[in-house]
Amino acid sequence: MTAITPASLLQMRSAILQQNSALQKAASSAVSGVGAVDPAQANTQQTSFAGAMNSALQQVNSLQSKAETASTAYEKGETTDIASVMLAREQASVGFQATLQVRNKLLSAYKDIMSMPV
């Protein structure tokens, strides 16, 4: 396992912030272009948003798999580095919580849109 340093934590934080801003840009461009975008562009935007969501879900799944592997290795006695095990589990937990919050926001936006008068 790799050692966790403050620099690597800051790098992970900046990567998360970059992904967040990319998702916000994708969402704002999709919302600002409603009604003014031709179908070919709309399909491209939808694909990129779906790709971004798929990529994010795969990353969360990967983090959870790594955490499970680290936990299993610790339980079997193959490793004694409890700090790396706990860090992997916490990273997976934070990723899952972030995914859950995105889902909740999407559901809230859907409900708001569906309750709008036409």
From TrEMBL:
Keyword presence, DNA-binding: no
Name of this chain's protein: Flagellar hook-basal body complex protein FliE
Superkingdom of source: Bacteria
PANTHER family per the UniProt record, alphabetical: FLAGELLAR HOOK-BASAL BODY COMPLEX PROTEIN FLIE, PTHR34653
Family: Belongs to the FliE family.
Main location: other
Organism name: Sphingomonas vulcanisoli
The entry's keywords: Bacterial flagellum, Cell projection, Cilium, Flagellum
InterPro entries assigned: FliE
Keyword check for Hydrolase: no
Compartments where found: Bacterial flagellum basal body
One Pfam family in the UniProt entry: FliE
NCBIfam families registered for this protein in UniProt: fliE
